[in-house]
């Protein structure tokens, strides 16, 4: 096993070795399940998961920073960063390994929601296009939230600070993309609108897979992970 | 002999704090070096520079000729490092943690299994191998950290305060373990516990205020530290005045201190002689015999490492205050 996958595996398993991982999964499934039970599964409504994806995106805004907050901050706090930094592992492997472990946990958290799809299939005849697009949107937004959370976690040894940094970053981004964009008007509004995650996710919910959205989420996630690598590498700069 | 570690005029600044000031040191292969110093002397910073965790602000550090920053990954493969207080993932089981650490050193398959089993045996962790690290005593956790540092069989082992915070039984156990590991590889033992370093190390470096204040074998350091030779003599003399008066007549005697007196007349004195004087013990004994004073003790008094250490640290503090 390469060091990167060893780090990813340890990180993934660590969520289940403490209560944190179980609590995050339980709360997410409870809240999203509640929404599915009372909003999605209404008699005579279309067999759509749109409401579930809509609420899940907002739940992820809190859940993903809670997943990522410990990735590096806890290593700094506990001092375990020191033996890790003294091991022959690059900062790339540390950051991407941890990110991969957190993303795998996100997948494990979303996996039980496939039961909702199975339930919908059992009760009606859903259109799978928007459902696949919805899951793709959840994964892309989750990936971006985790990337920003990884960077935030590399900046502090306090997990709560890391969580708040991530949360307020995305709230700030949404405020800029909506309120500030409207206030400033042309020519600033168009580039600022493009920062809105909600608008992009809405497109996915309608079943539209726009390449620009895919590029936006992928490039932005990679960019924040690179910043986290640079932050770790800076400890070794002369 | 091959040099495993070389520090060349290493400086480290943290903002306005000059933590390391021109550290130059060569450690030959196979040597057990004790790095002594008070808290804040720069020991841990030096170790972090050696392990490549921190870059030096000036100068360079190399392991087997490889710069610790320019060839960081190769250098880290050559070092086994137990940081102070052995930070570990407390939620992991011992064996899982060691497997994970072995994977970080790219050990795979059978090699990894063998490395983990060997480290478990070396550090006497067999009965704790399936236990959760957070539930272990501090002594056991220290051993897990040590086992992790040994997994890849590094040529240089660095132990930072390995007995810090342990109870006396755990200290004894850990010291025994370190002694067992010594001799198989080069080792740097960082400590402010003098007996630990004195008993284990071939060479001692005393660091204070970021500078090397003494460097040599225990014997060399003590010989250099003792200054003028001193002898302790205990005899039953009628009074202190007469005792001092007789002792001061011995050739080359410079100073006589009466350090204790008993009501029965037994008196102890410390007599200092000029450097290079011949062994004065026969003459001291003769003085007592001539006066018919029974002699109970006569021996050379050597300075302890502790005295030397305190003297060097105080001198460093004095220099700092003067600057």
What does this molecule look like?
The complex is a heterodimer of chains A (about 240) and B (about 325). Chain A is mainly α. Helix content of chain A is about 80%, strand content about 0%. Chain A has helices at about 5-15, 20-40, 50-70, 75-80, 80-85, 90-110, 115-125, 130-155, 160-185, 190-195, 195-205, 210-235. The radius of gyration of chain A is 19 Å and the shape is globular. In chain A, about 40% of the residues are buried. Chain B is an alpha/beta fold. Chain B has 11 helices and 14 strands. Chain B has helices at about 45-50, 70-75, 95-105, 110-120, 140-150, 170-180, 195-200, 220-225, 240-245, 280-290, 305-320; strands at about 5-15, 15-30, 30-35, 60-65, 65, 80, 155-160, 185-190, 205-210, 210-215, 230-235, 255-260, 265-275, 295-300. In chain B, helix 3 packs across helix 4 (about 110-120), helix 4 (about 110-120) crosses helix 5 and helix 5 (about 140-150) runs parallel beside helix 6 (about 170-180). The interface of A and B includes residues 2, 78, 82 and 83 of A.
